[in-house]
Amino acid sequence: MRQPLRYPWLDLDVDDRSAPVIAVRVDADGTKGEVPDHSHRKGQLVVSFGGGVTCRVPDGLWMVPPHCAVWIPGAMAHSNRATANARLFFVYVEPELVDLPDCCCTISISPLLRELIIELSDGAQHDEARRERLIGVLLGELPRMPVQQLHLPFSDEPRLKRIAAALADNPADRRTLAQWAGQLALSESSLARLVAKETGLTFGRWRQQLHLIVAIRELAAGASVQQVSAALGYESVTAFITMFRKALGKPPAAYINSVAREQKVTGIT
């Protein structure tokens, strides 16, 4: 059962605060947590320093790997789900103050930005001049961060919503495009065109992107490569590792180990 993520202030309303940047450390309390659908005027960075986090918006699902963030533009409805070991910061920004896209994106967070976010989340700070300087550096650095391709596009098209729901419930579902087409009373070519039109991806690439998002989330939560491979329905661990390496440039263990090394450097516990 998922529990609400715990904010440091029970009465937090970011749009009532005039500060250009508000950074908040959010505690998952050792259980899977979520923030249900909501929106606010300020833009939001969902920042992960450990564990796995996913953000859902009307047209897609975004993965927040450790030491990355998802940018959610102001006024966009969204929900956040976190694994039990997640270490999160929410950073709220006045939209006109930062040169970030008007659509969601996953961005890397440099060591400098991590330290700035930690400092700005410290509610005990009383040096406003220093705080303003930190905010200025943060707003200048954010647009320079590289974008990560960890996004699963969604569609409101009823037939694709049916496929997406089935794969989200059971990522190991290995039905082929032809099998799905038969169930939806479409030809295989018609379904292929529909998937490409609505998501910008082939069916195989779209399903692989879902697998990557699930894999990173579960690996970050502590699952083994073997467990994740089985949960995603791969015939062999080798096949899963090959897919992961081709997509992200590193095999799963190396990817997670590099994240763990960054956590030690950052000192987030």
UniProtKB/TrEMBL annotation:
Keywords: DNA-binding, Repressor, Transcription, Transcription regulation. Signal peptide: none annotated. One of its GO terms (molecular function) is sequence-specific DNA binding. The keyword Repressor applies. The keyword Transcription applies. Residues 161-258 form the HTH araC/xylS-type domain. It comes from the Bacteria. This is AraC-like DNA-binding protein.
